[in-house]
Amino acid sequence: MDFKLNDEQRMLEETVGRLVRDTYTFDARNKILESDQGFSADMWNQFAELGLLGVPFSEEAGGFNGGGPELMVVAEGFGRGLVVEPYLATVVLSGTLIDKLGNDAQKEQWVAAIIGGETRFALAAYEPQGRYDHTVVDTSAKKDGDGYVLSGEKAVVLHGDSADQLVVIARTAGNAGDRDGLSAFIVPADADGVTRKGYATIDGLRAAEITLSNVKVDGDALLGEEGQAIDALEATLDLALITLCAEASGAMEVACDQTLDYIKERQQFGVPIGKFQALQHRMVEMRMELEKVRSITMLAACSLDAPADLRKKRISAAKAQVGKSGRKVAEEAIQLFGGMGMMEETPVSHYAKRIVMIDHWFGDREYHLGVLETLIDVDDHAA
Amino acid sequence: MDINYTPEERAFRDEVRGFLNDKLPADIARKVKEHKRLGKEDTVRWQKILNEQGWLALHWPKEYGGTGWSPIQKHIFEEECAEAGAPTVLPFGVNMVAPVIIKFGTQEQKDHYLPRILRSDDWWCQGYSEPGAGSDLAGLKTRAVRDGDHYIVNGQKTWTTLGQHANMIFCLVRTDPDAKKQEGISFLLIDMEKSEGITVRPLITLDGEHEVNEVFFDDVKVPVENLVGEENKGWTCAKYLLTFERTGIAGVGASKAALAHLKQVAREQQVNGKPLIEEPHFRARLADVEMELMSLEMTNLRTVAAAEAGGVPGAESSFLKIMGTELRQEITDLFRRAAGPHALPFLPEEMAGDFEGPYVGPEFAASVASRYFNFRKLSIFGGSNEIQKNIISKMILGL
Ligand SMILES: Cc1cc2nc3c(=O)[nH]c(=O)nc-3n(C[C@H](O)[C@H](O)[C@H](O)COP(=O)(O)OP(=O)(O)OC[C@H]3O[C@@H](n4cnc5c(N)ncnc54)[C@H](O)[C@@H]3O)c2cc1C
Fold first, then answer.
1. Do residues A32 and A43 make contact, with C-beta atoms less than 8 angstroms apart?
2. Given CB 3.0 to 4.6 Å as the disulfide criterion, which of A352, B119, B242, B353 pairs with A330?
3. What's this model's pTM, rounded to 2 decimal places?
């Protein structure tokens, strides 16, 4: 075992760290939040130039050939700066799914466009009645000559408001809840029949409710075999969960650091409030939660090649831990800041919001505990 | 021991229910129940209805226009109001400054301010906290210097709740900078409309709302007759007021109403084709909240009953503050979970009083995340929960 980053991973960490420190200041981020799109196209170009958009893709495709640890390193850095650009939506959720399912022509076209920063994607998978369950898909894709006609509703599609292209998960067979019969399609976001209701989310991102009504696509919009998308979709969602856990880890680290600095500085009763033992112990507990999240995120990030059951077990455990520990760290950070913690002008409140709301993306603590419960007998000894 | 209400108490509850049924405006109750933003007009309209009935000033003695109710009656009233969706009364006038004026004020002050408070002529706000004086309130620096028949006030207050609507502020100010911390403080009533040199600036909270403010005083002239109690004895008023600030602090009525709403939502929301309320993790947490609420309600009633028997709720109210606020916060956490992914959309327009839809997610989900974050304040203000624990350690445990 070796917990150190290798040279390439360290380089990646430094690249992201520098970018976030130098350009992603609190004020710069606030300006980005206020912009129409809710993210910065300039920043996106910088990601492309630095090679960050290629992290999970193969070298032949022009990528970095990164795996879980590489994505973890990038996402932690993003978490430290509360980066709001559509990295997860484009690169992780859509790009890796295309990479897993697509034929050579599709990969050549889309993966290259993603790595180059030219095309932004969103994954339209979850549906209103399915909550966190990606198999509860009612959106239908009916064969129509050489192509398909798609109809249905997609809920809280991350960055679905601004994406150029959508990867839509639709049902070509079976019923909501079935694992078989799910297919993935590439649909231009401006196709006839696509309506998007975009909005900001409380953690600083953007999303959309998307309705597809009789959207016609060609046969070559289909990614992979008809009805066989589930394994690739789950592997992709697992990668997204690792990314989110790592982002949470980075954000929690900053929330802990800022709180520690604050209680050393803030004077009440003639002393820094950090002198009160009641608060010292609280700070210690926050740090313990952070350490747990760091550790379990590493475990999850290094489990991508494990057998599917073990991979899912560890990744769901990590996401559930983030839900539990994240809430604690966020609430305690606000509490220890007192009234200042409640203010929009105080950076820690933004960290708290992101950390808490990460629980609502791709399955909350209860949902992933439920997954974990079904996998409790899976042997989790390290290979 | 008998945990049931007496026949008189039951009759009283029926009377309160009848009143709420007849007089609580449906549009206001709807906003409260759906967690929409309430305007100043809504609060004032409801306060006027209460006052007509003689039920606004719960804690005042009868001779000043108060109800003269027993603590149990107040508890019943509070619970019924919460269940019916009545808005909370603005506490700063009727429940905070008024008891201080009644106890320490001059006859002129009583004659002038108390009827105005009953009629909702004034909108009061509380000027205690300062940037450097939160938990350590006695560290406040806002200065008032006597100049003939006026005080000249300079300094800054902060976190002033709903100060943007206020025309009156009660302030703790330092009148003797050389005395020991608590001893040089005075309690002043300041007219924000007529005085020159007052600036109110909005502070935006993490949920994007404008609920608190900063209030700056720049050579503000305040007539000496606006001093309540003796000069340099303001700390006595401040402490007296805090005991009133903590009445109803357990928020049992609010928690009961919120839990009932939460259960209803959990019955309606579907997870995998089944109601959320049947989802084992969620149901276990609901049961846990229910248990805590039973314990809290009984603790509250015991405290209240002890007060009825003559004792004033003292440090015991600190228990209620901690238990009550933690429970209310936990319920907001469950609401957030009930909404699932639809807790994420942040659409302030969906929280406006006149929003008719369509909603992006389920209607109840529109405000859940905002409320969860907003309610973090409950464990910070009114004496933070850590400060309450310090009080309990000292006053009850003798540590
Ligand atoms: C939404 C909101 C509305 C408010 N409305 C009003 C209002 O209308 N009028 C008004 O005057 N004030 C108001 N306040 C201010 C409120 O009373 C203060 O925020 C509160 O007293 C805490 O002070 P502080 O924010 O300065 O935090 P601090 O006092 O700086 O406390 C920071 C942290 O340290 C802890 N701490 C401090 N001292 C100790 C100790 N001795 N032992 C252990 N822990 C300690 C606190 O519990 C807290 O967790 C409001 C605050 C909020 C958030």
1. yes
2. A352
3. 0.97
